[in-house]
Automatic annotation (TrEMBL):
It comes from Symbiochloris irregularis. Belongs to the FPG family. The keyword Lyase applies. Pfam families: Fapy_DNA_glyco, H2TH. Residues 2-128 form the Formamidopyrimidine-DNA glycosylase catalytic domain. This is Formamidopyrimidine-DNA glycosylase catalytic domain-containing protein.
């Protein structure tokens, strides 16, 4: 699913094309599963005539602020995407964003803006959520999120304190949105690979050196991914991401080390055992504290399927501007 870098790319897309434009008309699909807590006609009325003043993000949540009234929030779920007409859309390995027709297939919200700019939010699997809130930053789910690794990475000393309280497997900790907002499956795997930490190691059993590396890469992986607009062709060749979806039978990272796959925290996990050796002496038992092999329930907007990833066709050119902080206060 879209993770921090992909949602930030969507925020930058909106910021680059839609800010300070008046909404001339809005059309909202009659889908009570995706459009949550407000009718489609009431949301249309709320949007019509407003001017978009800010595009904000924390973790995997994006919201639009206007010159008056409440904000509109978007959680992308498994297949949510923002599309601007005439601008190349992001593409993912597990689903394709429709950009050949307008409105795009599976659209949920269409907005026609001054200057002949058209914006749409689409979602084929219907796990996305569109909500209305007066002050998203001050209320759940945003207020319940942990630090955003791109926007509010804590100092190393504070980070050590947070890690020391965690007895769970380190990958489970990283993907807990109340710990680090926006980290999903591929980001967590990449961070741990770069830090040379095994995903099943117990968090509070990591060495000081491991925690320092984890702190560095937990910020650096999202930063580098966002710097290139989440365009995977521009990710470093040394990244696990570049090789984990290889069509060959035995994918390897640079240097020929084999990538293996197991299940951690209920998610397919890529790990390179030659470079990510187990270090904790008392590993968490499988199935405990969010460990391996657990059943998953449909939790709607908060349900993540992070095995999807952006393909090389995702646009970078239109994401180079307006890269300021996504979190609005």
């Amino acid at each position: 699913m879209p993770e921090l870098p992909e949602v930030e790319a969507a925020r930058v897309l909106v910021a680059g094309h839609c800010l300070n434009r008046k909404i001339e008309s809005a059309t909202v699909a009659k889908d009570e599963k995706v459009i949550e807590g407000i009718s489609n006609t009431d949301l249309e009325a709320l949007l019509n005539g407003k001017q978009i003043t800010a595009a904000c993000r924390k973790g995997k949540h994006l919201w639009l602020e206007f010159d008056s009234g409440p904000s509109v929030m978007f959680h992308f779920g498994m297949t949510g995407s923002m599309v601007v007409k005439g601008v190349a859309a992001a593409r993912y390995r597990s689903f394709v964003v429709d950009e050949e027709q307008w409105p795009p297939k599976f659209w949920k919200v269409q907005i026609n803006l001054a200057g002949n700019v058209q914006l749409a939010f689409a979602d084929g699997r219907r796990f996305a959520r569109v909500r209305v809130q007066e002050d998203p930053a001050a209320n759940p789910p945003i207020s319940s999120l942990g630090f955003d690794p791109l926007l509010s990475m804590p100092p190393l000393k504070d980070f050590r304190g947070l890690i020391s309280k965690q007895q769970r497997q380190i990958k489970v900790v990283l993907m807990d949105q109340s710990f680090s907002a926006g980290v999903g499956n591929w980001v967590a795997d990449e961070v741990l690979f770069q830090a040379r930490i095994h995903p099943e190691d117990r968090a509070n059993g990591l060495s000081e050196e491991q925690v320092e590396k984890l702190h560095h890469w937990l910020h650096e992986v999202p930063r580098q991914a966002c710097e290139v607009g989440a365009v995977s062709d521009n990710f470093p060749s040394s990244w696990l991401f570049t090789h984990r979806w290889s069509q060959k039978g035995n994918p390897c990272v640079e240097g020929g080390h084999k990538i293996e796959f197991n299940t951690v925290g209920g998610r397919t996990t890529a790990v390179v055992p030659a470079l990510q050796q187990r270090t904790t002496s008392d590993p968490v038992k499988r199935g405990a504290s969010g460990g391996s092999k657990r059943k998953r329930k449909d939790k709607g907007a908060e349900q993540d399927n992070d095995d999807s990833a952006p393909a090389a066709e995702a646009t970078a050119e239109d994401l180079d501007s307006n890269r300021g902080p996504g979190f609005c206060r």
